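In this supplementary section we document a worked example of the pipeline. Step one takes a protein sequence of length 240 as its only input; no multiple sequence alignment statistics are reported here. Step two produces a three-dimensional model, which step three serialises into structure tokens for compact storage. The input and output of this example are shown verbatim.
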Amino acid sequence: MLESRLMRRCLALLIVSLLALTLTAQTPSEVEITAEPGHHLALENQYVRVFKVEVAPHAATLMHRHRHDYIYVTLGAAHVENDVAGKPPVTISLQDGETHFLPSGFAHIAKNLSDQPFRNITIELMQDEKAHRSPPPKWDEERGLHILNGGTEDILFAKDGARAAELQLQPGGVLPKHHHAGPHLVVAVTDLDLRSDIEGKGASKVQLKAGDVSWEKGGFTHTLTNAGKQNAKLITVEFQ
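The serialised model returned by step three reads:
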């Protein structure tokens, strides 16, 4: 009787061990975002770490972990499957320039379900832990659509001390005089040919290709005009 019980216990332990090994073999190994081949570091400072992301048609990223809250800006229409570790897969369709905020603390695989490359700009907010401990800063506006002379400015959201906005300008369209107290990131959704008229300094050109990013220091007042022949679309992420 004792031998029979011991044999059953050994058999049970063996089955548990085999199941654990099987589950381990089926779980993709996890890498840091900096080691994920589709994520290419484009810019890094005390405020942000910016990656240009590209996944080939019908390909997938490695399982990678997001340790910071982040914003992503989609470049081109996309159809992807988001496989978050421990959760059922979710299929998402995204439009060109679509911008979202996601909290950190998860690992996932992004699968491109379309015949076109899946491209986005991923903007990690490097001061997220500090922002979680502090009262949220007061912005003049946290959300709102503004009709401009030949365009629109849509304030999308304010998270972790950063405010994201989408700016669209027709040729000749103008974003009127405004002040940048803090620095901001510019993400070009389309090719940009802009003229920045900075108070006390005169005019300068801002020329970026679609998918380019630019970091701008704060402390200036200016107007922004679309000097190009095509509609201009960009996302800004501003910090106080």
